[in-house]
Protein backbone atom coordinates (compact mmCIF):
# COMPACT_ATOMS: atom_id res chain seq x y z
CA UNK A 1 0.00 0.00 0.00
CA UNK A 2 1.30 3.45 -0.87
CA UNK A 3 1.57 5.72 2.13
CA UNK A 4 -0.39 8.95 1.50
CA UNK A 5 2.68 10.92 2.58
CA UNK A 6 4.41 9.69 -0.55
CA UNK A 7 2.32 12.16 -2.56
CA UNK A 8 3.96 14.99 -0.64
CA UNK A 9 7.36 13.42 -1.23
CA UNK A 10 7.07 13.99 -4.97
CA UNK A 11 6.64 17.76 -4.58
CA UNK A 12 10.21 18.81 -3.73
CA UNK A 13 10.58 20.88 -6.89
CA UNK A 14 7.15 22.55 -6.61
CA UNK A 15 7.33 24.84 -3.55
CA UNK A 16 3.72 25.98 -3.72
CA UNK A 17 2.33 22.44 -3.84
CA UNK A 18 4.75 21.24 -1.17
CA UNK A 19 4.11 24.09 1.25
CA UNK A 20 0.35 23.92 0.75
CA UNK A 21 0.42 20.20 1.52
CA UNK A 22 2.77 20.65 4.47
CA UNK A 23 0.69 23.48 5.94
CA UNK A 24 -2.50 21.48 5.54
CA UNK A 25 -0.98 18.50 7.35
CA UNK A 26 0.58 20.56 10.14
CA UNK A 27 -2.65 22.44 10.77
CA UNK A 28 -4.58 19.16 10.73
CA UNK A 29 -2.25 17.72 13.37
CA UNK A 30 -2.54 20.86 15.52
CA UNK A 31 -6.34 20.92 15.32
CA UNK A 32 -6.56 17.18 15.93
CA UNK A 33 -4.48 17.43 19.10
CA UNK A 34 -6.33 20.49 20.41
CA UNK A 35 -9.65 18.76 19.87
CA UNK A 36 -8.33 15.77 21.85
CA UNK A 37 -7.31 18.12 24.65
CA UNK A 38 -10.86 19.46 24.72
CA UNK A 39 -12.19 15.93 25.09
CA UNK A 40 -9.85 15.27 28.00
CA UNK A 41 -10.78 18.57 29.65
CA UNK A 42 -14.45 17.69 29.29
CA UNK A 43 -13.72 14.38 31.07
CA UNK A 44 -15.03 12.51 28.12
CA UNK A 45 -14.48 8.72 28.23
CA UNK A 46 -10.89 9.03 27.10
CA UNK A 47 -7.89 7.80 29.05
CA UNK A 48 -6.08 10.67 30.77
CA UNK A 49 -2.67 10.11 29.28
CA UNK A 50 -2.88 11.84 25.95
CA UNK A 51 0.39 13.43 24.84
CA UNK A 52 0.06 16.27 22.37
CA UNK A 53 2.73 17.31 19.90
CA UNK A 54 1.79 20.98 19.49
CA UNK A 55 5.00 22.74 18.46
CA UNK A 56 6.57 19.57 17.04
CA UNK A 57 4.40 19.18 13.90
CA UNK A 58 7.18 20.10 11.47
CA UNK A 59 9.23 17.10 12.59
CA UNK A 60 6.45 14.68 11.73
CA UNK A 61 5.52 16.33 8.43
CA UNK A 62 9.07 17.02 7.25
CA UNK A 63 10.30 13.53 8.12
CA UNK A 64 7.33 11.73 6.56
CA UNK A 65 7.72 13.80 3.39
CA UNK A 66 11.26 12.43 3.15
CA UNK A 67 10.21 8.82 3.68
CA UNK A 68 9.27 6.33 1.03
CA UNK A 69 6.78 3.47 0.97
CA UNK A 70 9.28 0.84 2.05
CA UNK A 71 10.29 2.73 5.14
CA UNK A 72 9.37 1.55 8.61
CA UNK A 73 8.57 4.02 11.38
CA UNK A 74 8.87 3.65 15.15
CA UNK A 75 7.10 6.39 17.09
CA UNK A 76 6.37 7.20 20.74
CA UNK A 77 3.41 7.99 22.96
CA UNK A 78 3.67 11.52 21.46
CA UNK A 79 3.20 10.15 17.97
CA UNK A 80 -0.29 11.13 16.75
CA UNK A 81 1.25 13.71 14.43
CA UNK A 82 3.58 11.22 12.80
CA UNK A 83 0.72 8.81 12.13
CA UNK A 84 -1.34 11.60 10.58
CA UNK A 85 1.61 12.81 8.50
CA UNK A 86 2.17 9.28 7.20
CA UNK A 87 -1.50 9.17 6.19
CA UNK A 88 -3.21 7.21 8.94
CA UNK A 89 -7.00 7.39 9.08
CA UNK A 90 -7.90 10.00 11.73
CA UNK A 91 -11.23 8.31 12.45
CA UNK A 92 -9.60 4.97 13.26
CA UNK A 93 -7.07 6.83 15.39
CA UNK A 94 -9.77 8.57 17.45
CA UNK A 95 -11.68 5.31 17.82
CA UNK A 96 -8.48 3.71 19.12
CA UNK A 97 -7.86 6.58 21.52
CA UNK A 98 -11.40 6.12 22.83
CA UNK A 99 -10.61 2.43 23.39
CA UNK A 100 -13.23 1.09 21.01
CA UNK A 101 -13.02 -2.06 18.84
CA UNK A 102 -12.80 -0.31 15.44
CA UNK A 103 -9.45 1.33 16.25
CA UNK A 104 -6.01 0.49 14.87
CA UNK A 105 -5.28 -1.83 17.81
CA UNK A 106 -8.89 -2.91 18.30
CA UNK A 107 -9.14 -0.38 21.10
CA UNK A 108 -6.61 -2.22 23.24
CA UNK A 109 -3.64 0.11 22.75
CA UNK A 110 -5.09 3.60 23.10
CA UNK A 111 -3.23 6.82 22.44
CA UNK A 112 0.18 5.66 23.63
CA UNK A 113 0.29 2.50 21.51
CA UNK A 114 -1.11 3.84 18.28
CA UNK A 115 0.60 2.16 15.37
CA UNK A 116 -0.49 1.44 11.79
CA UNK A 117 1.45 -1.50 10.43
CA UNK A 118 -0.09 -1.23 6.95
CA UNK A 119 1.64 2.16 6.69
CA UNK A 120 4.92 0.81 8.01
CA UNK A 121 4.38 2.30 11.47
CA UNK A 122 5.42 -0.80 13.34
CA UNK A 123 5.75 0.41 16.90
CA UNK A 124 4.62 3.10 19.28
CA UNK A 125 6.48 3.02 22.57
CA UNK A 126 5.14 4.16 25.93
CA UNK A 127 8.39 3.00 27.52
CA UNK A 128 10.86 5.85 27.11
CA UNK A 129 13.64 4.58 24.81
CA UNK A 130 11.71 1.37 24.19
CA UNK A 131 11.37 1.81 20.43
CA UNK A 132 15.08 2.21 19.65
CA UNK A 133 15.99 -1.50 19.93
CA UNK A 134 12.92 -2.33 17.85
CA UNK A 135 14.11 0.12 15.19
CA UNK A 136 17.51 -1.57 15.17
CA UNK A 137 15.89 -4.98 14.68
CA UNK A 138 13.77 -3.59 11.86
CA UNK A 139 16.87 -2.04 10.30
CA UNK A 140 18.62 -5.41 10.40
CA UNK A 141 15.65 -6.94 8.62
CA UNK A 142 15.68 -4.25 5.90
CA UNK A 143 19.42 -4.64 5.40
CA UNK A 144 19.15 -8.44 5.16
CA UNK A 145 16.31 -8.18 2.64
CA UNK A 146 18.44 -5.87 0.50
CA UNK A 147 15.44 -4.17 -1.04
CA UNK A 148 16.09 -0.65 0.18
CA UNK A 149 14.09 1.31 2.70
CA UNK A 150 15.09 2.83 6.01
CA UNK A 151 13.77 2.90 9.53
CA UNK A 152 12.82 6.29 10.93
CA UNK A 153 12.90 6.11 14.71
CA UNK A 154 11.41 9.05 16.65
CA UNK A 155 12.11 9.61 20.33
CA UNK A 156 12.45 12.40 22.90
CA UNK A 157 15.58 13.83 24.49
CA UNK A 158 14.68 12.02 27.73
CA UNK A 159 15.31 8.73 25.92
CA UNK A 160 18.97 9.66 25.47
CA UNK A 161 19.45 8.93 29.20
CA UNK A 162 18.30 5.31 28.82
CA UNK A 163 20.54 2.30 28.29
CA UNK A 164 18.54 1.22 25.26
CA UNK A 165 19.48 4.45 23.43
CA UNK A 166 23.21 3.74 23.82
CA UNK A 167 22.99 0.04 23.02
CA UNK A 168 20.88 0.77 19.97
CA UNK A 169 23.19 3.43 18.56
CA UNK A 170 26.20 1.22 19.18
CA UNK A 171 24.77 -1.81 17.39
CA UNK A 172 23.20 0.15 14.54
CA UNK A 173 26.55 1.88 13.86
CA UNK A 174 28.52 -1.34 14.16
CA UNK A 175 26.29 -3.12 11.63
CA UNK A 176 25.84 -0.01 9.44
CA UNK A 177 22.07 -0.37 9.56
CA UNK A 178 19.73 1.87 7.55
CA UNK A 179 18.24 3.67 10.54
CA UNK A 180 17.63 7.39 10.99
CA UNK A 181 17.35 8.17 14.70
CA UNK A 182 15.27 11.33 15.06
CA UNK A 183 15.48 12.96 18.49
CA UNK A 184 12.74 15.52 19.07
CA UNK A 185 14.64 17.63 21.57
CA UNK A 186 12.17 19.77 23.51
CA UNK A 187 14.70 19.97 26.36
CA UNK A 188 12.47 18.37 28.92
CA UNK A 189 11.54 14.97 30.12
CA UNK A 190 8.18 15.33 31.79
CA UNK A 191 8.90 17.98 34.48
CA UNK A 192 12.71 17.63 34.39
CA UNK A 193 14.90 20.07 32.46
CA UNK A 194 17.45 18.69 29.98
CA UNK A 195 20.50 19.65 32.10
CA UNK A 196 19.22 17.51 34.99
CA UNK A 197 19.59 14.27 32.99
CA UNK A 198 22.16 15.04 30.29
CA UNK A 199 25.77 15.98 31.04
CA UNK A 200 26.20 16.58 27.30
CA UNK A 201 24.79 19.79 25.85
CA UNK A 202 24.15 18.47 22.31
CA UNK A 203 22.33 15.18 21.70
CA UNK A 204 23.98 15.06 18.28
CA UNK A 205 27.38 14.84 19.99
CA UNK A 206 26.39 11.48 21.42
CA UNK A 207 26.70 10.04 17.91
CA UNK A 208 30.47 10.73 17.85
CA UNK A 209 31.07 8.06 20.48
CA UNK A 210 29.61 5.47 18.13
CA UNK A 211 31.29 6.66 14.95
CA UNK A 212 27.92 7.77 13.69
CA UNK A 213 27.09 10.76 11.53
CA UNK A 214 24.80 13.35 13.10
CA UNK A 215 23.07 16.59 12.25
CA UNK A 216 21.33 19.33 14.25
CA UNK A 217 18.27 20.87 12.64
CA UNK A 218 15.64 23.47 13.47
CA UNK A 219 12.69 21.17 14.10
CA UNK A 220 10.25 24.06 13.74
CA UNK A 221 11.17 24.53 10.10
CA UNK A 222 9.41 21.97 7.94
CA UNK A 223 11.68 22.63 4.94
CA UNK A 224 14.81 22.12 7.03
CA UNK A 225 13.36 18.98 8.57
CA UNK A 226 12.52 17.53 5.20
CA UNK A 227 15.98 18.30 3.84
CA UNK A 228 17.77 16.87 6.89
CA UNK A 229 15.82 13.61 6.86
CA UNK A 230 16.12 13.28 3.07
CA UNK A 231 19.93 13.49 3.30
CA UNK A 232 20.15 11.29 6.38
CA UNK A 233 17.89 8.68 4.90
CA UNK A 234 19.86 8.61 1.64
CA UNK A 235 23.07 8.12 3.56
CA UNK A 236 21.60 5.35 5.71
CA UNK A 237 20.11 3.49 2.74
CA UNK A 238 23.38 3.75 0.79
CA UNK A 239 25.13 1.57 3.37
CA UNK A 240 27.12 4.41 4.95
CA UNK A 241 25.49 3.71 8.32
CA UNK A 242 22.82 5.21 10.53
CA UNK A 243 22.40 8.91 11.26
CA UNK A 244 21.30 10.75 14.38
CA UNK A 245 19.14 13.79 13.64
CA UNK A 246 18.70 16.18 16.56
CA UNK A 247 15.61 18.29 15.90
CA UNK A 248 15.36 21.29 18.19
CA UNK A 249 11.72 21.88 19.07
CA UNK A 250 9.53 23.58 21.63
CA UNK A 251 6.53 21.78 23.07
CA UNK A 252 3.75 24.36 23.30
CA UNK A 253 1.60 22.48 25.80
CA UNK A 254 2.13 20.55 29.01
CA UNK A 255 3.69 17.09 29.12
CA UNK A 256 0.28 15.51 28.62
CA UNK A 257 -3.15 16.85 27.97
CA UNK A 258 -5.03 17.80 31.08
CA UNK A 259 -7.17 20.69 32.06
CA UNK A 260 -4.11 22.91 32.50
CA UNK A 261 -2.61 22.03 29.14
CA UNK A 262 -3.48 25.26 27.36
CA UNK A 263 -1.62 26.01 24.16
CA UNK A 264 1.00 28.76 24.44
CA UNK A 265 -0.10 31.46 22.03
CA UNK A 266 1.99 33.69 19.74
CA UNK A 267 5.26 31.85 20.29
CA UNK A 268 7.78 33.18 17.70
CA UNK A 269 8.98 29.71 16.66
CA UNK A 270 5.53 28.13 16.32
CA UNK A 271 6.05 25.78 13.32
CA UNK A 272 2.48 26.04 12.08
CA UNK A 273 2.71 29.85 11.98
CA UNK A 274 6.16 29.74 10.38
CA UNK A 275 4.89 27.48 7.61
CA UNK A 276 1.85 29.73 7.17
CA UNK A 277 4.04 32.81 6.78
CA UNK A 278 6.25 31.07 4.26
CA UNK A 279 3.26 29.83 2.28
CA UNK A 280 1.71 33.30 2.40
CA UNK A 281 4.77 34.67 0.58
CA UNK A 282 4.71 31.92 -2.01
CA UNK A 283 0.99 32.23 -2.77
CA UNK A 284 1.24 35.91 -3.71
CA UNK A 285 -1.77 38.19 -4.18
CA UNK A 286 -4.50 35.69 -3.41
CA UNK A 287 -2.76 34.31 -0.34
CA UNK A 288 -5.28 35.48 2.25
CA UNK A 289 -8.23 33.92 0.47
CA UNK A 290 -6.38 30.68 -0.24
CA UNK A 291 -5.18 30.35 3.34
CA UNK A 292 -8.67 31.02 4.68
CA UNK A 293 -10.04 28.30 2.40
CA UNK A 294 -7.40 25.79 3.53
CA UNK A 295 -7.98 26.61 7.19
CA UNK A 296 -11.74 26.25 7.08
CA UNK A 297 -11.44 23.03 5.09
CA UNK A 298 -8.94 21.52 7.54
CA UNK A 299 -10.99 22.54 10.59
CA UNK A 300 -14.09 21.04 9.01
CA UNK A 301 -12.23 17.77 8.21
CA UNK A 302 -11.01 17.46 11.80
CA UNK A 303 -14.48 18.17 13.20
CA UNK A 304 -16.02 15.59 10.84
CA UNK A 305 -13.45 12.97 11.88
CA UNK A 306 -14.41 13.39 15.54
CA UNK A 307 -18.10 13.14 14.67
CA UNK A 308 -17.49 10.06 12.50
CA UNK A 309 -15.55 8.46 15.37
CA UNK A 310 -18.49 8.98 17.70
CA UNK A 311 -16.73 11.53 19.92
CA UNK A 312 -18.82 14.50 20.93
C1 LIG B 1 11.58 3.76 30.91
C2 LIG B 1 10.60 4.82 31.34
N1 LIG B 1 10.91 5.64 32.38
C3 LIG B 1 10.05 6.61 32.75
C4 LIG B 1 8.84 6.76 32.10
C5 LIG B 1 7.91 7.87 32.53
N2 LIG B 1 7.89 8.90 31.49
C6 LIG B 1 6.91 8.98 30.58
S1 LIG B 1 7.15 10.19 29.48
C7 LIG B 1 8.57 10.67 30.22
C8 LIG B 1 9.36 11.83 29.67
C9 LIG B 1 10.17 11.47 28.47
O1 LIG B 1 10.76 12.62 27.93
P1 LIG B 1 11.28 12.65 26.45
O2 LIG B 1 11.88 11.35 26.08
O3 LIG B 1 12.13 13.85 26.32
O4 LIG B 1 9.97 12.81 25.57
P2 LIG B 1 8.90 14.00 25.57
O5 LIG B 1 7.83 13.62 26.55
O6 LIG B 1 9.60 15.26 25.91
O7 LIG B 1 8.35 14.01 24.18
C10 LIG B 1 8.85 9.88 31.31
C11 LIG B 1 10.03 10.04 32.17
C12 LIG B 1 8.55 5.86 31.05
N3 LIG B 1 7.41 5.95 30.36
N4 LIG B 1 9.44 4.92 30.66
MG1 LIG C 1 11.64 15.77 25.79
What does it look like?
It is a single chain. By secondary structure, this protein is α/β, with parallel strands linked by helices. It has a single domain, classed as Rossmann fold (3-Layer(aba) Sandwich). It is built from ten helices and eight strands. It has helices at residues 5-9, 15-41, 57-66, 80-86, 90-97, 131-145, 163-174, 222-237, 271-283, 287-308; strands at 72-76, 121-125, 151-156, 179-185, 188-189, 192-193, 213-218, 243-248. The strands form two sheets. It has a six-stranded parallel sheet with strand order 2-1-3-4-8-7, with helices on both faces. β5 and β6 form a beta hairpin. α2 (15-41) crosses α3. It is globular, with a radius of gyration of 18 Å. The two termini are 32 Å apart. 49% of the residues are buried. The structure holds thiamine diphosphate (TPP) and magnesium ion (MG). Residues 78, 126-128, 156-159, 186, 188-190, 255 line the site of thiamine diphosphate. It holds the Pfam family E1_dh. Residues 44-309 form the Dehydrogenase E1 component domain. Its cofactor is thiamine diphosphate.
Fourth-tier CATH superfamily name: Thiamin diphosphate (ThDP)-binding fold, Pyr/PP domains
CATH topology: Rossmann fold
Cα gyration radius (Å): 18 Å
Estimated share of beta-strand residues:
5-15%
According to DSSP, the number of beta strands is 8
Helix content: 40-55%
Q: What is the CATH class name?
A: Alpha Beta
Could you say which overall geometry the principal axes of the C-alpha atoms support?
A: globular
Q: Any idea what the CATH architecture is?
A: 3-Layer(aba) Sandwich
Which H/E pattern describes the elements?
HHHEHHEHEHEEEEHEHH
Give the names of the bound compounds.
Answer: thiamine diphosphate, magnesium ion
Report the total helices.
Answer: 10
Q: Give the total of domains.
A: 1
Mind describing the biggest β-sheet?
Answer: 6 strands, parallel
User: What is the structural class?
Assistant: alpha/beta
